[in-house]
From TrEMBL:
Annotated EC: 6.3.4.13
MF (Gene Ontology): ATP binding; metal ion binding; phosphoribosylamine-glycine ligase activity
Name of the protein: Phosphoribosylamine--glycine ligase
NCBIfam families assigned to the protein according to its UniProt record, in alphabetical order: purD
Lineage per the UniProt record: Bacteria, Pseudomonadati, Pseudomonadota, Alphaproteobacteria, Acetobacterales
Residue ranges of every copy of the ATP-grasp domain listed in the record: 107-313
Assigned protein family: Belongs to the GARS family.
Class of this enzyme: ligase
InterPro entries hit by this protein: ATP-grasp, ATP_grasp_subdomain_1, PreATP-grasp_dom_sf, PRibGlycinamid_synth_ATP-grasp, PRibGlycinamide_synth, PRibGlycinamide_synth_C-dom, PRibGlycinamide_synth_C_sf, PRibGlycinamide_synth_CS
Amino acid sequence: MRVLLIGSGGREHALAATLARSPHLTALFIAPGNPGTAKHGVNVAIGAENVPALITFAKEQAIDLIVPGPEAPLVAGLADACAKAEIACAGPTRAAARLEGSKSFTKEICYAAGIPTAQGERFTSVDAALTYIQERGAPIVVKADGLAAGKGVVVAQTLAEAEDAVHDMMTQGSMGDAGRSVVIEDCLVGEEVSLFAFCSGETATLIGAAQDHKRIGDGDTGPNTGGMGAVSPPRGFDRAAQEQALDVMVRPMLKEMVRRGTPFRGVIFAGLMLTDAGPQLIEYNVRFGDPEAQALLLRLTSDLLPALKALADGQLDATPITFSDQASISVVMAAQGYPGKALTGVVISGIADANALKDVTVFQAGTAKNAAGELVVAGGRVLSVCAVGNTVQEARDKAYAGVKAISWDGAQWRTDIGARAL
C-alpha cells in the first residue's frame, strides 16, 4: 500500500514509525515531514494545509491512502478533496471536522445529544463576554472558538485573568481569527484524560487512552501549551471505563452527526474531565493527539495500517486493536520561549545517545537541518522523549534518562510528567 502521511510534528514521526512496521506498506511519503520522519519514508516539500498540491502529488504517486496527522488540513477540506479525486483518506469531511474547528459547534452538538459538558456560551461581543464572566464568577474557562494549535484555552482562576484573556483574544488578536469569537464555560474540576476511537457513521471502536499535561510548568502551572507530555494508560481510567465513556461521550455525538447529514469518519479524540459527578466532555479533536499519540503508539501491538485503510473505506476493521500491558511516558522537550516566541536555530545534541538507551524512543517535532547538516531547533515543541516500562515509574525513569542525554541551549521540559499516575 502506498501511503501519504500529512504533517511534521512528533505525532507524525510516531505515526510514520508505526506505519513503517506494517507488512502491507510498500511506500511511505510524509508531507512535509521532519528529519525524524525521513528515517521511515520520503519527505515531500508540501505544506500540510496546501490541499491542492497534496492531491496533485497523491495522483502522481498513485497513493492508496492519505493519513492526516494535524487538524488544520481536515478543517480546510482535505477529506472532501480526496473524495472528489477518489483517493482514500482516513479523516473526516470539512463539515464533520467542525467538531474541532469550532468550540461553539461542539457545544451545540453536546446539548443536542445530551452529552455531559460544562455550561457555556459563545460570544462575538467583548462587552457581552465580560458581563457573562461577572455573572458566572471565577474560576472560569475562556476558549478561542477556532483552531489555535492547542494554545487557545485559558483556565482563569480570577475574574481579572478571565477578562484579560477576553481582551487578548478578541481585542488584541492574540489567537488571530480563531479568537475573534470565544466560548466561555464553567471550570470543570478533576483528572483530565484523552480517549481515542476509530469512528464511522454511528459506530465507534475503542483505540485507547492517555493523559496529557497541558501547562508549561511543573505542578500544572503557567499557560496552556500544545502538550508537554503524556502517560498511557491513565490511572483510574481502565478499559471498562473507556468503553463506558464511548457510550456516553462519543456514540451519541456520532448519531447526532448522522442525523444532521454530516456523518463522522476518522479518529475521534475526546478530551474528558473525570469529575466527582462522572466524566464531562472538554472538547473533541478529529485526529490523534500530540503528545498522546507518541505514548499510545509505543504500546500498540496490532497493525495500524489496515485499520486506517478500513476507516477510509467507511468501515471499521474487524481485527482488534491491541496494546501491550506496559506503561509508556512521553516527555516533551521545548525551545526557550515556548509557548511564546521560540528561540530557533540552536544545535541539538545527544538524540542518538538517548535512542541507544533500552526502551527509549525519541520522536522529532520542531527540528530541521542547518547548512552544515546539523540538527537544530526549528519550532516550539522540539522533541518527544518516550519510553515504555513494566510500571509507570519504570517508564518514567527511562524517559527522563533519555531527556538527560539530550541537550541544547535553552531547552525546557517538565520534570513531573506521569507523577499523578503514581
